[in-house]
Amino acid sequence: MTNKMKIRDAFVWLLVTDKAKEVFQSGLFEVYKFHDDGTESLCESLDDINDALESGIDLAIEVGDLLDA
Hints:
The protein is α+β, with helices and mostly antiparallel strands and 69 residues long. It is 25% helix and 32% strand.
């Protein structure tokens, strides 16, 4: 998968699924799981990242709100 943008509820996310472990371990960004019900949740540990990857769940970082542009 290549990185791509996703927009949910006028908010922009960058999908980082392939690099999620590196992004999380860098500490520069918070990584979120995208659930099938349209919600997202914060990954609080490397175990959260691994569980998401094993389950095929997309992982993303926040980019910003479209309404603030």
